[in-house]
Amino acid sequence: MLRVLLLCVLLAGCSSVESFPEDLPAAPDLSKVAAALKTVAAEAHLAEPVEVSDPIRANPISASPWLICLRSGQSEESKRLTYSAFFTDKLVSSRYSVIVDDCVQPAYHPLKDIEQARESERPAESKPGRRHEARRPG
After folding, report:
1. pTM as predicted
2. pLDDT tier at 115 (50, 70, 90 boundaries)?
């Protein structure tokens, strides 16, 4: 009995949780990764309209620090099947979502709206025009 008690005390001492400082890259900007998300949606065969979540901190055991959840907004049934896209400073991988991804909770936004916002942020391309030089009298 004493051995079991001693073993429990020793194991409890080994289970202390220490937090290690992380060099976590900034969360991906949805407008900057919209093209990658569109590619993931096409590869996953998600029906339009595609909806995405804001970036979520991935599970600590994940190799990528951020994930963005994707789903089809076509029907209530299609909203149940989600896909996860993993990011560092760029797209790393994607797969069907699992419970630890927590893709059930977040609010979703239409991917189309994010793409349109991205397009409206781009400066209008200047068209090369003819240069008019001032004529000198004479």
Report:
1. 0.70
2. confident
Residue in this structure with the two tokens 């029906």, named with its chain if needed: 47
- Do residues 53 and 106 touch, judged by C-beta distance below 8 A? yes
The half-sphere exposure of 108 on its side-chain side, counting CA atoms within 13 A, is 21
- Please check whether residue 38 is in contact with residue 111, taking contact to mean a CB–CB distance below 8 angstroms: yes
User: Would you list the domain boundaries of the chain?
Assistant: 25-120
DSSP 29: P
**pLDDT tier for residue 120 given thresholds of 50, 70 and 90:** confident
Is residue 66 within 8 A of residue 88, CB to CB? The reply is yes
The residue whose two tokens read 């977040």 is 106
H or E segment to which residue 5 belongs? helix 2-14
